[in-house]
Write a structure and sequence with these properties.
By secondary structure, the chain is an alpha+beta fold. The protein has a domain at 72-119 and 157-320 and 369-470: Outer membrane efflux proteins (OEP), CATH 1.20.1600.10. The chain has 11 helices and 8 strands. A 4-stranded antiparallel sheet has the order 4-5-7-8, covered by helices on one side. Strands 1-2 form a two-stranded antiparallel ribbon. α8 crosses α10 (354-423).
C-alpha cells in the first residue's frame, strides 16, 4: 500500500470514529415537553414476539397524555346510573390503568434488549514514529471485535424479561379487579344514601300526618299539648338527618367522579332504584377452583417463580466463560515489502472467582425457595378469602329474606295499626312514635343489608377474579 493512500485511509477512519455518535445514535427526544404520563399504543412488540421480525421505528407509536381531571360531567345521556355503566367508564377513564399499562409495555420492551448482542467494537492504532521513516512502513492497525456471551445466557435473560413482563401484566389485571370492586362499592354508597334520603322524606311526611292528628286531638281536648311538641321534636331530628344525608350524597358523588378522573363536584345521574341480589348457586369448592385458575396475583407469583428459576440457571451459567472474537488488519509487520496482514483472535474471561459464583447460585436457590413458599401461602390465603366471602353471602341471603318476609311487613302493619289506635285514643302518642321509629329503622337496616350483600358479591367477584362481564 502506498504511503499517500494509507494516510488518506487513516485520516478517514479517525474522522469516522470521532463522528460516529452523530451517525449511529438517534436524535435525542425533546426534553421541554410537559411531564405527562406517556402510554404507547399496542403496536409495541410483546414479550413473546421475535425481535428479528423487523426493526420498528423509534417514533412509530404516538403517545397519549393523561391530563388534569375533566370538567365535563359523565353520563350526560343517562337517566339512571347502573353499576355496569359505572364500571365500564371507570375502566376507560381511571389513570391508574394508564400508568400500569405503560409499565407493562415498558416491561415487554425489555425482551429484545436483553437477548441482543452487545454492539461490536471498531478500533484503530498507529505508530507515529513509523511515519516518514525510511526503514519501515507506516504502522497501522484496524480491528473489529464482538463479545459473545456463553451458550444459553441470552435465552435465559430473555426468559427472565418475559417473566417480568408477565408479572407486570398480572399486576395490571389485579389493578383492574380492584378498580371494579372499588367502583361497585362507590356506586353502593351512592345507592344507600339515596335510599336513606327516600326513607327520611317518607318518614317526614308520615310525621307531619302524626302532628296533624295530634293537633286535632289537642284542639278537641282529647290529647295533651305534649303530643304536638313531641311530634315537633321528631320532625326536627329528621331534618337534621336530612342535612347529614345530603352531605353524604355529595361525598359519594365526589368519590365516583374521582374514580372517573373528573372534577369531584360534577353532577351525576341518580343511581338505579331497584338492585337485584341474585342467589349464589355455585358451591364454595367450585368457587375456590375458579379462584385458583383465575387469580392474577397467583399467576403473577408463578411468573416470579419462573423468573427465579431462570435466574438460578443463569447463575450456574456464570461458571462458563464469555468470549470476544476479533478480526484485524495491521501493518506493524516490519519491512518495506510487507503488506497489511489479516489476523484472527479470541478472548475469554477466566471464571476464577468461584466463591462469588457459588454464593450467587446459593442466593438464587434461596430466592426460588422463598417464592415457592409464598405461592403455597397465597393459595391458602385465597382459599380462606373465597370461603369467607361465600359464608358472608349465605348470611346476607338469609337476612334479606327475613326482612322481606317478616320484618318489613310487620313494621308497616304495626305503624298503620298504631296510627288508627292513636286516633281512637286507645294508645299514647309515644307508642305511635315508637312504632314509626321501628319502621324507619327496619327500612334503613334493610337497605343497609342490601348494600352490604351486594358489596359481598363484589368482594367475591374480586377474590375469584371474575371479569367485568361476569360481575353480578
Amino acid at each position: 500500500m502506498h504511503f499517500a493512500t494509507r494516510n488518506i485511509l487513516f485520516a478517514w477512519l479517525v474522522f469516522s470514529l470521532s463522528n460516529s455518535g452523530c451517525v449511529l445514535l438517534p436524535e435525542s427526544p425533546r426534553n421541554d415537553l410537559p411531564p405527562a404520563l406517556l402510554v404507547e399504543k399496542s403496536t409495541a412488540p410483546t414479550a413473546q414476539s421475535s425481535p428479528l421480525a423487523g426493526q420498528p421505528s423509534i417514533n412509530a407509536a404516538s403517545p397519549e397524555e393523561t391530563g388534569a381531571p375533566g370538567k365535563t360531567p359523565a353520563f350526560l345521556n343517562l337517566k339512571q346510573l347502573t353499576p355496569e355503566e359505572l364500571v365500564r367508564e371507570v375502566l376507560n377513564r381511571n389513570p391508574t390503568l394508564a400508568a400500569m399499562t405503560a409499565a407493562t409495555e415498558a416491561a415487554k420492551a425489555r425482551f429484545p434488549q436483553v437477548i441482543s448482542l452487545d454492539d461490536p467494537n471498531l478500533a484503530a492504532w498507529m505508530a507515529p514514529g513509523s511515519f516518514g521513516s525510511n526503514q519501515v512502513n507506516p504502522a497501522l492497525r484496524f480491528e473489529f471485535s464482538q463479545k459473545i456471551p456463553a451458550r444459553g445466557k441470552r435465552q435465559l435473560r430473555g426468559e427472565m424479561a418475559q417473566a417480568e413482563a408477565g408479572i407486570a401484566e398480572q399486576e395490571l389485571e389485579s389493578a383492574k379487579l380492584e378498580l371494579i370492586e372499588e367502583s361497585r362499592y362507590a356506586f353502593l354508597d351512592l345507592y344507600l344514601v339515596e335510599r336513606n334520603i327516600e326513607v327520611n322524606d317518607e318518614t317526614l311526611k308520615l310525621l307531619n300526618d302524626f302532628r296533624q292528628n295530634a293537633e286535632t286531638r289537642y284542639r278537641n281536648g282529647q290529647a295533651p299539648q305534649q303530643d304536638v311538641l313531641q311530634a315537633e321534636v321528631e320532625i326536627g331530628l329528621l331534618k337534621e338527618k336530612a342535612i347529614i344525608n345530603y352531605r353524604v350524597r355529595k361525598v359519594a358523588r365526589a368519590r365516583i367522579n374521582t374514580l372517573l378522573h373528573l372534577e369531584p363536584d360534577l353532577p351525576l345521574p341518580a343511581p338505579l332504584k331497584e338492585l337485584e341480589f341474585s342467589k349464589e348457586s355455585r358451591s364454595s369448592g367450585s368457587l375456590r377452583q375458579e379462584a385458583g385458575n383465575q387469580r392474577p396475583d397467583l399467576k403473577g407469583l408463578k411468573e416470579k417463580i419462573r423468573l427465579d428459576e431462570a435466574a438460578l440457571q443463569l447463575a450456574r451459567r456464570e461458571f462458563s466463560p464469555d468470549y470476544e472474537t476479533m478480526a484485524a488488519y495491521d501493518s506493524f509487520w516490519q519491512g518495506m515489502d510487507k503488506q497489511l496482514q489479516f489476523q484472527l483472535g479470541v478472548k475469554l474471561n477466566l471464571p476464577a472467582r468461584r466463591d462469588r459464583r457459588f454464593a450467587a447460585v446459593s442466593e438464587a436457590q434461596y430466592r426460588l425457595a422463598q417464592k415457592k413458599a409464598e405461592f403455597n401461602l397465597l393459595e391458602d390465603k385465597i382459599n380462606f378469602q373465597v370461603q369467607e366471602a361465600y359464608e358472608q353471602i349465605m348470611e346476607s341471603e338469609q337476612i334479606l329474606n327475613l326482612f322481606k318476609t317478616v320484618t318489613l311487613p310487620a313494621a308497616s302493619a304495626n305503624v298503620r295499626e298504631a296510627q288508627a289506635t292513636y286516633i281512637n285514643g286507645k294508645i299514647p302518642f309515644l307508642t305511635l312514635i315508637a312504632a314509626q321509629k321501628e319502621q324507619t329503622m327496619a327500612r334503613e337496616r334493610y337497605f343497609l343489608s342490601q348494600a352490604e350483600a351486594l358489596r359481598r358479591k363484589a368482594a367475591l367477584s374480586r377474590v375469584i377474579a371474575a371479569s367485568a362481564a361476569q360481575l353480578p
